[in-house]
């Protein structure tokens, strides 16, 4: 018996020594214990955020921000029939109903927001503050997109560090999401280092651009004016001397504030741009925009021939919504040159351009009653486009006052042309409350005229938002589907 | 007559003893002698004296000497041989010729960390000997073992170098990787057994029940396959040389469209879609579209496989040795695919002293394996026959209209694996006292694989060349200490106790270079390139360690009541500190009731009967090596390199465990002429390790958890008979059948999913269950979609001008309410003529997700093997069948080429198109072959249309062997010589329309036929010489 006890105690004793033998640390992957030690660690952790951001863009950019608007008509074939998106026939099976990539970005930001203040004095304070402001910015950018696409979404503001932190959140109200965005942006604006300049990742310019856009969404015109002023004060960006033909084709001009880089090897072909030039005609500019644009600037507007492939965009048949016109593409990424699809693999996508912010500022000034200021801002864009400058007198009504609504219409019209294909149109319609009127008129008029059938008109508020993918609902039983999808 | 053949010699011997007993002496004396068998001296034979404790063992020359009374009785016993009793009768020299036992019960069976006589086995262990293994001239262990062990399912492909799938008693876990058994080669755990030459193997033991496997603890839940390599036994060196040549070709070709059928198909589609067929496919002047290829004829060939093996073995005074070398040149039936392999082995045991033995097992394998790359076979059935493979200038045609060139892929794309596999095992054994043995060993395994991939620009639409070079180095070492005590007390109590300790480490290192825009295609490697794949070009390293204690107690009383218990205590680096150690106990009992008095009546008829029961717990630890730690990995935003958290810390992660009960009986009739085994088992796996999806809001994709449970139940039986045995004619048969029923008994809702569109993973379903929509018919007319409110289908009636007139129900006119099936929603599209009539399971008139049901299952109802051997004089004719009955196959090949929603350049199956609906009134099997009705998803993946019965019976091989008469052989100074002619996989009886119903698959996608390698059938000619 003693022997047995002896053997068992030996086993137990050795087993505890063996526990050291059984500890192995991974080599090529790192664990939390040895990470978050240096500035480079933070830089690499934040770099990781741009990967899911791009993944999100790949999944949904066109569906969320272009195909659903009155800019394009879509084809009915393929795994993602753009026509269904264009006709507001959304189902939870579309790949763009997946929000997980945005939450990966949120997770990257949450980790950084959690760890950076705990890192101690390993880098200069202004560096640390700036990196922290990038983290707040990335989280705000992710939530702002979630807010625009789905409205009410789960609010996750703490990092999930271990398995026991995993929980199933409910969808928070979009108001609380906006509160988080505003909070994050004001933190970011407090911490940002204005001397930093970057184009492909975070920069003060990108922060103020986002702040301006968010302020406009909230009807905070003073805020928009203030933030856009801070952007101007950086003295980095200007439309003067820039060539419109380059703002997408080579988005490194002084007009470009934040550009998403692309690598064919890592990301595959740039599905956004190749869709615009696809020989199978997945998305085609509406005949309506063609005619509107001609009327707007005539031959003077350099943007139209630089955006629409003028060699092909002529042949619209009467049933062109059903039988899409052959070869109609936009060539904004190679103005004047019709290239094969494969030439667009490595194209970069501008996220923020100065022209975008200038026009937002114009809207804000207009709303605040500074009509001349608004028109001045608008003229900056018109000037580069080769159009005649507008005067305040163009908008004065016979009774003496100013028709501010007409100024706003014109600013928004400039935005549609200027930013065509860059993912701004749908946001503008939603932000300005014109969505229902514009889209229903688009369906009842243009679409119906050319034989389009089966669209769903906008009548309910929930229709503005996207359904959530069924997989995501299955994973988390606390989530409810958007509206009546 | 047969009986006399066998009993005859014994009676003669007995008479001999009696005649000697007349001259009795009573004083003690030393008796000496030599023990031999038909091959020469036999070392290690036990000699005991009746009523005395004296014992002796023969030495390496078979010599012995022992003190014995002149009237004493000596018993010579050696496992695998008939025990021999000799009355001394005053002799001082007794030479004995031992006879090999016909009774398999005396065979020695390898169990974990030791051996046992088959007679004493209480668990479910099947042993396959060397002769059985090489019977079919196998090129790998998988082909050698296939069908020979009840309950061991091996699925392999004809592709040279392809890995096979092994399943012992079904899949016990839900994860896709975790169901392979544990492989032990000469005491060393290995990852796979692909590189072992089957001719080097002495025996393979398959440990099926938990009680037998539990001594391997945490890795044994899927059973254990133990391979023991050969060792010399005979004092005269034995040299064996064998050679075989095999011609293989594709056993079954699939229908595919020729040029004209392709054009007709396009015209038919255009007609149905109300569009116009394109002109270019009919353009007889365009050199890219004027061919008429049958890709299967072009890409598959008559392939030749050569196999040469040589070995020498022997046992000198102190040395036992086995040396072998083998060369295999295995050509695949697809052009430019091959596996060329050299194997060699040195096994040696050296007795330093009487008590102290050392030994090594050393093997080296190297080879070069080219498998056909993905593009070489991916579109051969759907690519238009008219598309060029070679351009008029003699170069390979590039990608045309997104169709890659399969011939160019097959010939130009480098997809080569060079591998080096070295295994070393060195041991020392020391007899501390007579019954107590200590053995310590160190084993190491080194595996290096260099993968080279080069894809010239012409192969891809992007026209960008790319290449990849991957070097993988796996290294593993194991150290073991084992103490064994075994003794028989009072001749009736035999006790054996074993205790051991082992530690092991496995590490794997991986360097990958992945580049594109290679400067020149003359250099077919990653040297000189324009772009680097920043995420894929990297170094990776992973490792795991284990420390274990294990023990066994075996006790038997008069070999009638048997008791066995294994236990193992394992610690693994893979799990969180809290759950690091696991205990795996087992117990098994046996009762040889044939020895009981009440069974006396059966003497002479029933030679042995045993009842067995066992219960044990085993484990599985198939999670990533660092699955319990939080981890970050490298990602790249173009040239901004990032580090991203990808794995959550989970210190509660622990073992998956399997509890298994096994009841079995063994019968042996007529002195081993008929052997019968039966086993019934129930195994329940719980805390299944599953890589579970996490809510996306966490920012993580998935994480390993211990969730869910799987239950397997089944039975196995094996019967082997020597039907006829005379001097000139012998006939034996063996049949084994295994039935396994598997079901997922618990799975959390988050893990419920449908894999590959059709495999459901959910509570109450068998792994491999196919789930989807059941097609009932194709609507012949638009008006056929008409039902009564009770969903009884109405018959439309048409007039002579084909105008619809009315509905009828059972021959009576029907005027009531007419209901119609709709797609997707109550307002969805109405199904028309040429659409599939899906089974509306819930009767709501809407075909949607609620109508999905079980439409098949990949797991067969039963599997097994049947072999029969006839020997007449020097000729042997043997046939071996394997079968799997009742499993379904999901024919993804057919599903994807019949999905008419693609362009008309994706050719469909001409047979299916002929069977498709084309005009109103057609009674068809398949929906209309066009994309016109893609809105109602007629050719959906999850459809019973693509599921076929995968049952098959295959004549794996039939062999005619001629053995040279001994006197001719000895005239040529040979022990034996034989020639054989064999047909392999030549006949398969199946209703499956694809290449082959036997489909290697991983995890839960059982029977998923996706781009599988066609089955080869072969003719083999072999010659074997033994000196």
Automatic annotation (TrEMBL), chain A:
Its keywords, alphabetically, are:
Cell outer membrane, Membrane, Signal
Q: Which PROSITE patterns match?
A: PROKAR_LIPOPROTEIN (PS51257)
Q: Which residues form the SusD-like N-terminal domain?
A: 21-209
The protein's predominant localisation is membrane
| Signal peptide start and end residues | 1-20
Keyword Iron-sulfur included in the entry's annotation: no
The record's subcellular location field reads: Cell outer membrane
Q: Does the keyword Transmembrane helix apply?
A: no
Instruction: Provide the RagB/SusD domain boundaries.
Output: 341-485
Family that this chain belongs to = Belongs to the SusD family.
**What name appears for this protein in its UniProt entry?**
Membrane protein
